[in-house]
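G., before I forget:
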Amino acid sequence: MIADINETISKLEQNFNALAGKWQSETCGFSSITKKITNLNYYKIIAMGKPAIPFILRSLKNQPDHWFVALKALTDRDPTNPNDSFEQAVEAWLNWGRSEGLID
Amino acid sequence: MGDSISLELRYQSLRSSDYSITSPRTPNYNCVAWAAGEDRRPWWPIPYDTAPYYWPLGEQEDESLDVFIECFQSLGYEVCDDENFEPGFEKVAIYVDEDGMPSHMARQLASGVWTSKCGDLEDISHQTLSALEGDRSYGYGTVVCIMKRQMGEI
C-alpha cells in the first residue's frame, strides 16, 4: 500500500519535472508574463491539482522561476505583498510552504 | 561561449551582429523592467494583481502597443522619429511580434549602444536594434516604436 503511494508520488513528480522542463525551455526567452502562464505545459501542471504544490515549491526553491500564478491558483492563497521584488515573492512562497509543512 | 550559442539559437540575427553578454541569466526582471531601468521585478500588463509582476498604471485588460506607449509616457517618454542617438536624451524601443503585440523592449545607453534583457536569459548590449529582430521562432519580431525623454527626467 505504502509502496503503491510512493510509486504514484514518484510518477507524479516525474510528470511534473517533464512538464516543468518543457515549460522552462519554451518560455525562458519570453518577457511576456502572459505567454509564460498560458503555455500549455503550465496549464497541465495546474491541472495536476494540489499534488503539484510541493513539486512547484521545491522547484521554486532550487531554481526560482515564474510559479507565482500557478501557486496562487492551486492554493487560493497569496502570501506576497504587492510591492515585493521577485526574490521577496519567492521567499514569501517558500516561507508559506514551510509553514504548511510542504517543503523543508 | 555556451551562453552565446544558446542566445544565437533563439535570436538568429545575433549571429551576424555586434553584441556582448552583460549579465548572468535571471528571472528576477524582464525586458520592460530593464528598459525602465529596474531589475528587481518583471514588468508586464496583466489583468490581476500578482506579485512580483508590476505595471506602473495598474491592472490592464489588454497588452497592446498603446498600453506600452502609455506606460512609458507616464515615465516621461514621448514617441519620436528614429533610433539615432541624441546627446541628452534616453531612448527605448518597442518590438512587436507577428500579431502586432509587444514582445520586447530595449534601452539605449549613453554610449549609443542598446541594452536588452532577453526574457529570463541574459542581458546583452547590441549595436543595432535589428540584432533581436526576426520572426516568431528566431527573434522578437519588428521594432515599431521609438520613444525618448530628456536624461535626468523621472
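The CA atoms of residues 89 and 150 of chain B lie 4 Å apart. The longest helix of chain B spans residues 2-10.

More on Monday.
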